[in-house]
Amino acid sequence: MDTLIAGQIVTYQGDPFDIPAEEAVQVQSDGAILVRDGKVAAIGERDQMRSRHPDATFHDHGRALVVPGFVDAHAHYPQTAIIASWGKRLIDWLNTYTFPEEAKFGDPAYAEAIANTYLDLLLASGTTTVTSFCTIHPVSVDALFEAAERRGMRIVAGKTCMDRDTTPENLRDTAQSAYDDSKALINRWHGKGRATYAITPRFSPTSTPEQLDALGRLWAENPTCLMQTHLSEQTDEIEWVKSLYPTARDYLDTYEQFGLVREGALFGHAIHLEPREISRLRESDCSLIHCPTSNTFIGSGLFDMAARKSEALRVGLATDTGGGSSFSMLRTMAAAYEVGQLSGAALHPAQLLWLATRGSAHAMHMDDKIGTIEVGMEADLTVINLASTPAIAQRANRAESVWEEVFPTIMMGDDRAIDATYVMGARVGA
Ligand code: GUN
Ligand code: ZN
């Protein structure tokens, strides 16, 4: 059964940080996408496509923008219920809010309930793919992959590993159990349907060198997995890492020593980097994940997007919920714009949209499957109403170009702007 989805279709011709943004990101008004077997089969002009495919189910979204489903490249689904917790910086925030909540995920019923709530919030916000941390409990990983499987979503997840006495005892595994549990989860989930496993040491301060070494070995044995962790988020954290790993050259070296710095490594935050770290990250083709709502909310600092992109690093965009203050990638793009302004670079709306879709997919090594509307790609699509509130509508009304019309929704939009979300061409949620 064919499906036709019509609207203003956004397509990519290149990286808007390399070539002029409006050349790289094009908007075809009166366009339509033909979906067959969950994939994009053709893209064309609406009326022509209708007459060529008269039997297809037709979804007409008028002047709404049809974009690739948003890709959130770093999040913590177990923190859903503690989002927007007041008044702490990173280490105190982890100890006060995060760890007590994460301790609840040994209960499979609780993990399942939060996983369902979380993925429904994502779909309502137009996010079709996420890379998420879980907790130390294997059942927390099963719960998320099962919830994603029920919704047909392509997601990346992994058991968070932490064995160091810097964390509460009830949230500690060991080097061996982290290896064994992660290995069993890889065998159960990696490559099953749309699931991808990410080996997940939380960050160096919560792992012993023995655990990082075990996870480096596990990754070498399972090289098609991704690896996710945190890097240089706050200056206090960097000092802490130096005290825990006194012989390391820098924060990145605590991962590098154990084989955790290579293609497929996703480093959340990566704000306060030293020149050697930047060179190594580039030479190793690692991915940096920008989490702007989190970096302002927890007070971490300003990620220098323009510099990192000019160094040809892979950069994704992410909410980092519940350190981030929103599940919405629209809100996250707005924060990326604001952080860009504070760093001296005004990001073009086309660059923001590209980062939230293709940029994140590229950072996750999935840009051959998702993140772009192109023939052969999986049909995960988000439909954005460009006049979703009176405040946005009155501004968009004045617009003299499509990007001037889109920008108010990026800056002021939220889940109310999401008219529809499609997963593999099937309409879900919203
Ligand atoms: N660093 C280690 N764990 C976390 C976490 O859960 N959230 C954030 N923002 N940073 C971290
Ligand atoms: Zn994080």
Question: Describe it for me?
Answer:
The mean pLDDT is 98. The radius of gyration is 21 Å and the shape is globular. The strands form two sheets. Strands 5, 6, 7, 8, 9, 10, 11, 12 and 13 form a nine-stranded parallel beta sheet that branches. Strands 3-2-1-4-14-15-16 form a seven-stranded mixed beta sheet. The protein folds into two domains: 3-68 and 371-428, Urease, subunit C, domain 1 (Roll); 70-363, Alpha-Beta Barrel (TIM Barrel). It has helices spanning 21-24, 46-52, 90-102, 108-124, 138-151, 175-189, 209-221, 235-244, 251-256, 275-283, 292-297, 305-310, 329-342, 349-363, 390-396, 402-412, and strands spanning 3-12, 25-36, 39-45, 57-68, 70-76, 127-133, 155-158, 160-161, 195-201, 226-231, 265-269, 287-290, 314-317, 381-384, 418-423, 426-428. It is of the alpha/beta class. Bound molecules: guanine (GUN) and zinc ion (ZN). Zinc ion (ZN) binds at residues 74, 76, 230, 268, 320, 323.
In short:
Helices cover 39% and strands 23% of the residues.
List the helices and strands and how they pair.
Layout: E1 3-12, H1 21-24, E2 25-36, E3 39-45, H2 46-52, E4 57-68, E5 70-76, H3 90-102, H4 108-124, E6 127-133, H5 138-151, E7 155-158, E8 160-161, H6 175-189, E9 195-201, H7 209-221, E10 226-231, H8 235-244, H9 251-256, E11 265-269, H10 275-283, E12 287-290, H11 292-297, H12 305-310, E13 314-317, H13 329-342, H14 349-363, E14 381-384, H15 390-396, H16 402-412, E15 418-423, E16 426-428
Helix pairs in contact: 4-5, 5-6, 6-7, 13-14, 13-16, 14-16, 15-16
The chain binds guanine and zinc ion.
Residues 74, 76, 230, 268, 320, 323 line the site of zinc ion.
